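Researcher: Go.
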Amino acid sequence: MSSLIPRHQRLLITLMIVLLGGLPAGAEKLRPHDETARAPNFAAFKTRFVQAVKVRDVVWLESRITPHSHFGFGPNEQGISGFRARYRPEDPDSSLWRTLEKIMGTAGSYHPEEGMVCFPWLYRRLPTSEGESRAVILGDDVDVRAGPGAQTPVQERLSWDIVEVLGQEGSWVHIRGPEGSLRSGWVHADFIHSPMGPRIGFVRQDGSWRIQFLVSGD
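Model: Structure:
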C-alpha cells in the first residue's frame, strides 16, 4: 500500500505523526541532550563542581550553598545546617558523593526563564502519565532481566526508553517496558532514573552559580 504513495509524501506523513504525538509507545525514548552550554559561564563552574565531588571537597561544596538552598521538603532542611543533617558529608559512608557523581555525570537541562540548570536532564523533561511512575533507562542496550538479580536470564535490552516503574527489590527495579518489548522485567538501579529520584538545580546569584536544591522524592 505504501508503495502507491510517493516517497516525499510518505516522509511528510511520518513527520506529521511525530509532530502530532502519534507514534506508538514503543517509540518513546528520552535520550540525553545537554542544554547547559547555553547557560552563562556554567561550563567552568561544572568543571570545578565535578572536581570538588571527586576529591570530596566539603568546604568548597558548602561555599556553593545559600540559606535558601533546599535539601528536603521540611522547614529545617535548608542552608548549611539542612545540608549537613541530610547528607552528613564528612561521613565516609555518606550517599552524597555517589549521588552527585551519578547525576552530574548525565546531561543537564537549562531553563532560561528561571535562570536555572538542572541535572539530570530528564527532570522536568519526562512526559507525565497520571497514575504511573515513569522513569528512563540510562544507557544503550541495558539488560532487562527475568528477576531481581544478575544471575537471572536477560530477557531483552532497552536503550533510553521511557518505562513504568512497578516496584523495587533491593538494587533491582521492576519495570513495565514500552510497547513492543516483553513488557515486564528487572533493571539494576544504576541504569534507571526517575524524575523523582535524586536531582540538583543551580541558579546564578551575585555572578556565581549556587545550589538551589539537591533533593530526592516528592
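Model: The first strand starts at residue 65 and ends at 70.
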